[in-house]
Amino acid sequence: MFLYNIIRDMPAFDIKNTVLFCFLEAAFLLMIFLVFYCFSGFFLSVHGIIFTLLFMPAVAFQFGVLVFLIFMFFRIAGPRVSFYCGTSVTALINIAAVIDIFVYGQYHFHVNPAMIQLLLGPARSEIFTFPASMYILAAPVIAAVAVYTFFVAFHVNRIKISSVHVTAAVCVFSLIFCAYNIHYAYARYIFIPDVLAQISILPLAYPLSMNSRLKKMGFRPHSGDFEESAVGNFSYPLQPLEFDGTTGSNIVIIVVDALRFDMMKPDIMPHTAAAAARHGFFNFSRHFSGGNSTAAGIFSLFYSLPFSYWSSVSGVSPVLIKTVSDRHYETGIFASARLDSPDFTGNIFSGIKNLRTGSAGTNTIERDLNALDDFFVFLDEFKKRDGNSKTDDSKKHFMSFVFFDGPHAYAVPEKYHRPFMPSPDSMNYMILNQGTDPLPWLNLYKNSVYYTDSLIGRIIERLERDGRFNDTIVIITGDHGQELNETKHNSWGHNSNFSDWQTRVPMLLYVPGLKGNVMDYHTAHYDIVPTLMKRAFGCTTDPYSYSMGRDMIDGYGDKGRPYTIISSYTMKAVREENRISEFSNYGKINHFDENANTSDEGASAQVLKNALKDFGRFYK
User: Fold this and answer.
1) Are 519 and 291 in contact (CB under 8 A)?
2) Is residue 197 a contact partner of residue 43, using CB atoms and an 8 Å limit?
3) What is the β-pairing status of strands 250-256 and 282-288?
4) Contact of 284 with 519, CB cutoff 8 Å
5) Pairwise CA distance, residues 262 & 260, whole Å
6) Under a CB-based contact definition with an 8 Å cutoff, are residues 56 and 26 in contact?
7) CA–CA separation, 302 vs 288, rounded Å?
8) What are the contacts of 382-388 at 24+ separation with CB within 8 A?
9) Which of 9, 72, 353, 497 is the most buried (most CB within 10 A)?
């Protein structure tokens, strides 16, 4: 009865009140959009300023129309149901907008289908590792937004407004919305960067473009500085691979999630540094991942192709995995996080039978240890199957991929020694901003790397104890970097820019029979497969036919790679030395230095031309 009385006494909106409520919600979103621009910066050219003044109210009006349609939909069930349900959905929209501000502020991209898929996927608890303090801080913010929305809804009936005013407001905002679309269509046609660049700032902004219609009318719209190669049928490799009869070596690839380049120091990774010195590892000190995210980084490592090929390789094994299979290698894949989110099971590891797709455990520490333990069980079983073979012809080989997740989650066991202090117990992105002192969080990250290094040390020790080390190629690297606002752009984590901090990773390589050294030229994940194909299997085919790389040891002389393609989930860039040219979604190219600062100089025109060919090289 009590609930019935509340619902009975709940105010009901008439059409005028509904429109007014929608305008108030649009005003709320307009304030949120100002925050987005504070993160991105304002565009101070004449066209840029005009478009900004049209863009924000137009998109806010667009959201207001959406809220109005929601209320009208629920009005079918009655005015009070419309009030209750419409206000609830509006509150959810406002909460989503606030969450999007947080995501954009930290990562400089909006909540998108790929991110939602990861969040709702089976590996959500492994990819998104948020401490309890973050939820404690987020809860009152979300509650405040919901309370604000209902407060406005309950009090909007007290505002007296005439139909003339409502009609005038709708007409004014409709004109602004039309002007916004016309201005964008014009800017897209004659190509005004300060207009086109703003589309990525606000969520769900899809303005009108008339290029297709203008083409039909015989006009030729400008398409930007460069155009990518056309996409056709995927063809990989481009020719059959040939080999010189090399019998092969064991392969162990150790990848640490979010391990950036400056962590490869004796005080941070003592076990790895000691093993590198003891065995003569090659240390490629200017090595870059093919991406600033796990999906792009791991994809570039195994396929030696840019992440843009992701949708084309489904069911097609990388040449490395196929060669390992053809040579009847024992294969063990030991990832801490799940391999089906992002779905590496459908591409990289699709050809591996009885694939281990994840690790047991309730947290990152437990899953990392489970991956390590299972790898050791694999070595025990391999040793039994291999027996005591005396000849190279009868000797079995194995390839293993061990993927630790600790630094990505800033994970350190509760009572484990922390040499870097001060250090908080866990990472909390909610309290990070431009003014945050990064030192404690950097120390937490270092402590996590320090712990993960002990796991790498156990792998090296086990290979040594089993007598396997001297016939095993060992790689130690990261899938991408991890920034703690070193660029001073309020960037924390990865997948938000293509700076050194997010893309440059350690790269240690041990090849039996070779004495390594520090190699200070430019290499990338694209070079790992060509190196393994040559050093482990004696592949004599030009790497150009199956990769974007060369043998890291002697494939480039002492000059290194001329350029590297680096991808995020939503963008891609070309890096030549310290010059980075980023391809925007609208065809324009923006230039940055190694610290993500805007620059007047990017990759050379010839490098960009070659890189754009690479995006289509493996399509017929």
Assistant:
1) no
2) yes
3) unpaired
4) yes
5) 6
6) no
7) 14
8) 382/330, 382/332, 383/466, 385/330
9) 497
Distance, CA of 462 to chain centre: 33
Q: What domains appear along the chain, each with residue ranges and CATH number? A: 2-216 (no CATH), 250-566 (3.40.720.10)
CA 503 to chain centre: 11
For 582, the token pair is 């980023």
User: How many Å is the Cα radius of gyration of the chain?
Assistant: 28
Going by pLDDT thresholds of 50, 70 and 90, the confidence category of residue 127 is low
The structure tokens 């993960």 sit at 452
pLDDT surpassing 80 at residue 244: yes
Residue keyed to tokens 């066991």? 413
Which 8-state DSSP code applies to residue 225? S
Q: Report percent pLDDT > 70 for the chain.
A: 85
DSSP letter assigned to residue 584: P
Q: At a CB cut-off of 8 Å and minimum separation 6, what does 491 contact?
A: 106, 107, 108, 483, 485, 497, 499, 501, 502, 596
pTM of the model: 0.74
Rounded CA-CA distance 68/87 in Å is 10
Does pLDDT of 4 surpass 80?
Answer: no
Tell me how far CA of residue 87 lies from CA of 30, 101, 435, 515, in angstroms.
18, 21, 36, 69
Q: Are 29 and 55 in contact (CB under 8 A)?
A: no
Long-range CB contacts for residues 178-187, cutoff 8 Å, separation at least 24:
179/54, 179/58, 180/51, 180/54, 180/55, 180/58, 180/59, 180/207, 181/58, 181/207, 181/208, 182/208, 183/47, 183/50, 183/51, 183/54, 184/51, 184/208, 184/209, 185/209, 185/210, 187/47, 187/51
**Distance (Å, rounded) from C-alpha 563 to C-alpha 578?**
10
d(Cα 209, Cα 185) in Å, to the nearest integer?
5
State the pLDDT at residue 217.
64
- Residues 361, 334 contacting (CB under 8 angstroms): no
Q: Which amino acid is at 115?
A: M
Residue type, 158: R
For the residues of 229-291, what is the DSSP string, one character each? PPP-SB--SSS---B------EEEEEEETT--GGG-STTTSHHHHHHHHHHT-EEEEEEE-SB
Between the alpha carbon of residue 472 and those of residues 158, 248, 463, the distances in Å are 77, 9, 8
Amino acid, res. 21? F
Digit-coded pLDDT (tens) for 166-205: 788 889 888 988 998 888 888 877 767 677 767 767 777 7
Number of neighbours of residue 47 by Cβ within 10 angstroms: 16
Instruction: Report whether 449 contacts 482 (CB < 8 A).
Output: no
Among 130-144, 526-540, 566-580, which is the least confidently predicted range? Answer: 130-144
Query: What is the CB-side half-sphere exposure of residue 409 using CA atoms within 13 A?
Result: 24
